Amino acid sequence: MDDTQQPTVFDTDQQQLGDVYAKAFLGFAKESGKLDAMVEELGEVVGVFNELPKFRLAMESPRIDAADKTSMLDKAFKGKCSDGLLNFLKMVAQRDRFDCLNSIHSSTVKAHDEMAGRVKATLTTASEIETSVQDSVAKKLSGILGKEVTLVCVVDPDIVGGMVVRVGDTVYDGSVVNQLQQVRAKAVKKAVDAFREKLDKFITT
């Protein structure tokens, strides 16, 4: 795998707000002594909203006031999730930031993993790869990063071959496409340098 690192930045308002709310959520979840359970519970609730788009759209709608949204949350989740999580959801609804729910969850999982010394990596390949290869990649990344790596595998025929590994905002690109692009870039540079050398000789003679 190529060691070239290409940092990519996703600087959106939702992700920034997701980080802020995630920090708040993890803070009181830790104080409650139920950190792991509440993080898992948040994921389950987010899954419910993703499976019920009409419910989600209603919670995101600026036309529905905060009191009605709070009532909707009580009817849907009271007694079915922890009071701490329900109160957190109400706070998000009252501040009209339910559109950030997925970002909040993503930021929460990422921060929780960091607290536990874990990191998630996405491995993209042109076709499915054997479990032994996945384990090998995860082991190598763990050695590089000094953390436990959870590997998520994705198949994308467009990368042609090889593999692309994303860890957070960093991409380790070892795909054939990237290799070809690097070869092409080097060839173009070599041709330009040769042309400049000939031009310099022509001018000075």
From TrEMBL:
GO terms for molecular function: proton-transporting ATP synthase activity, rotational mechanism. Its main location: membrane. GO terms for cellular component: plasma membrane; proton-transporting ATP synthase complex. PROSITE patterns: ATPASE_DELTA. This is ATP synthase subunit delta. Keywords: ATP synthesis, Cell membrane, CF(1), Hydrogen ion transport, Ion transport, Membrane, Transport. InterPro entries: ATP_synth_OSCP/delta_N_sf, ATPase_OSCP/d_CS, ATPase_OSCP/dsu. It is found in: Cell membrane; Membrane. The keyword Coiled coil does not apply. It is a peripheral membrane protein. The keyword Membrane applies. Belongs to the ATPase delta chain family. Signal peptide: none annotated. This protein is part of the stalk that links CF(0) to CF(1). It either transmits conformational changes from CF(0) to CF(1) or is implicated in proton conduction. F(1)F(0) ATP synthase produces ATP from ADP in the presence of a proton or sodium gradient. F-type ATPases consist of two structural domains, F(1) containing the extramembraneous catalytic core and F(0) containing the membrane proton channel, linked together by a central stalk and a peripheral stalk. During catalysis, ATP synthesis in the catalytic domain of F(1) is coupled via a rotary mechanism of the central stalk subunits to proton translocation.
